[in-house]
């Protein structure tokens, strides 16, 4: 199995010639790659790559999370995004025992209908825009506490009459304690290339990033804390125009470095008082930095959600505040297809 994993890794690396570069907001293609795959992720700030759980949707941000508790689990997710945009994600996993755990997922985003006009303002009709990705993930446990994983992700994008194909891959390693109270992960995401371009011969870059995360379940309190650090390959995520002048004081430079470091962080807390419900809150520092108004931030960057365990299935809901003028709503359904009469054992809700 280790040989199979190595072959998959090397094969993917050979077909991804433009893998290592740092790109963030608006400078890369296929932005659907950075959307929250589930309501639970959305409620906790958009990213929970360290959560050792039975939800196959979580594998989207970290392939090493696929594990045997996901056997025959189905996750169906839908989100109402900004400006009438809709997107969703469907994932299914099946454990192969000592051979590892594969997960297959399908993602889409529909940007809606647009009015087509010429340069003179004459209405010619309408058109649509959408993107799709097929997510093929596989994880192998090195022992009972450490797992490694890889995702290969073909992508198709259509913007009016212009189309583009691409391929991306993720690589992750994950550790969790025997009692699942602590977990740590490291992931390299979106290594890949645009295979065919929309209209010009110039290939656009993918949103490559290195991320790390931890989560910790308090021993004597019903809280699980998630901390994620994104874009570790690039320290300054802000425009160059925000740089301090060369004669800035040491104190100002230190303050700015602290602010720049905080831009990488996403924090989330789950309140899990029993086996029935989970209440969640998240905060995305960079989202608030980029989308807050100059003199008023409101709740930008915050997200909220809850989950209810009905035994045979779990429903999660999230409300995320990207901007003072726009909210997003996400809903997820998780179901156990292995045995109709069995309840879902969910580490997230106990």
Write the layout of secondary structure elements.
Blueprint: H1 2-14, H2 39-43, E1 73-80, E2 86-93, E3 101-117, E4 123-141, E5 146-159, E6 162-176, E7 182-196, E8 209-217, E9 223-229, H3 250-262, E10 265-271, E11 277-284, H4 285-291, E12 302-309, E13 313-323, E14 326-336
Antiparallel strand pairs: 1-2, 1-14, 2-3, 3-4, 4-5, 5-6, 6-7, 7-8, 8-9, 9-10, 10-11, 11-12, 12-13, 13-14
Explain the overall architecture:
- This protein has 350 residues and is mainly beta.
- It has a single domain (2-349), classed as monomeric porin ompg (Porin, Beta Barrel), CATH 2.40.160.
- 11% of the residues lie in helices and 45% in strands.
- The chain contains 4 helices and 14 strands.
- The chain has helices at 2-14, 39-43, 250-262, 285-291, and strands at residues 73-80, 86-93, 101-117, 123-141, 146-159, 162-176, 182-196, 209-217, 223-229, 265-271, 277-284, 302-309, 313-323, 326-336.
- A 14-stranded antiparallel barrel has the order 1-2-3-4-5-6-7-8-9-10-11-12-13-14.
- The chain is globular, with a radius of gyration of 21 Å.
- The model is unreliable at 1-23 (pLDDT under 50).
Average pLDDT for all residues = 86
CATH homologous superfamily annotation: monomeric porin ompg
- How many separate helices? 4
The CA-CA distance between the termini, in Å, is 33 Å
**Which strand order does the major sheet show?**
1-2-3-4-5-6-7-8-9-10-11-12-13-14
Q: Radius of gyration, rounded?
A: 21 Å
Estimate percent helicity. 10-25%
Order of helices and strands: HHEEEEEEEEEHEEHEEE
Uncertain runs are 1-23
Largest sheet: 14 strands, antiparallel, barrel
CATH topology: Porin
CATH class: Mainly Beta
> What is the beta-strand fraction?
35-45%
Number of domains: 1
Shape: globular
- CATH architecture type: Beta Barrel
Number of strands: 14
Structural class: mainly beta
């Amino acid at each position: 199995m280790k040989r199979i994993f190595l072959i998959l890794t090397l094969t993917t690396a050979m077909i991804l010639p433009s893998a290592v570069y740092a790109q963030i907001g608006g400078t890369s293609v296929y932005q659907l790659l950075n959307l929250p795959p589930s309501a639970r992720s959305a409620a906790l700030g958009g990213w929970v790559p360290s959560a050792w759980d039975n939800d196959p949707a979580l594998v989207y941000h970290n392939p090493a999370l696929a594990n045997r508790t996901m056997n025959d689990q189905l996750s169906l997710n839908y989100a109402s995004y900004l400006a009438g945009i809709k997107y969703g994600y469907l994932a299914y996993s099946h454990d192969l025992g000592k051979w590892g755990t594969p997960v297959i997922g399908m993602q889409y985003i529909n940007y809606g209908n647009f009015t087509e006009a010429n340069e003179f303002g004459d209405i010619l009709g309408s058109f649509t825009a959408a993107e799709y990705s097929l997510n093929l993930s596989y994880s192998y446990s090195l022992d009972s506490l450490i797992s490694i994983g890889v995702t290969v992700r073909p992508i198709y994008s259509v913007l009016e009459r212009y189309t583009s194909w691409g391929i991306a891959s993720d690589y992750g390693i994950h550790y969790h304690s025997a009692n699942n109270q602590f977990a740590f992960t490291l992931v390299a995401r979106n290594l890949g290339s645009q295979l065919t371009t929309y209209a010009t011969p110039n290939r656009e870059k993918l949103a490559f990033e290195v991320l790390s995360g931890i989560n910790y379940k308090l021993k004597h309190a019903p809280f699980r804390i998630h901390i994620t650090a994104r874009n570790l390959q690039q320290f300054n995520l802000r425009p160059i125009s925000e740089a301090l002048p060369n004669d800035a004081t040491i104190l100002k430079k230190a303050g700015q470095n602290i602010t720049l470091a905080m831009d990488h962080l996403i924090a989330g807390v789950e309140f899990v008082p029993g086996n029935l419900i989970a209440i969640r809150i998240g905060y995305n520092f960079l989202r608030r930095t980029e989308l807050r108004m100059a003199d008023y931030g409101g709740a930008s960057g915050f997200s909220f959600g809850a989950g209810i365990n009905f035994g045979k299935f779990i429903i999660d809901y999230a409300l995320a505040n990207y901007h003072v003028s726009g909210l997003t709503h996400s809903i997820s359904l998780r179901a156990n297809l292995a045995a109709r009469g069995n309840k879902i054992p969910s580490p997230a809700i106990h």
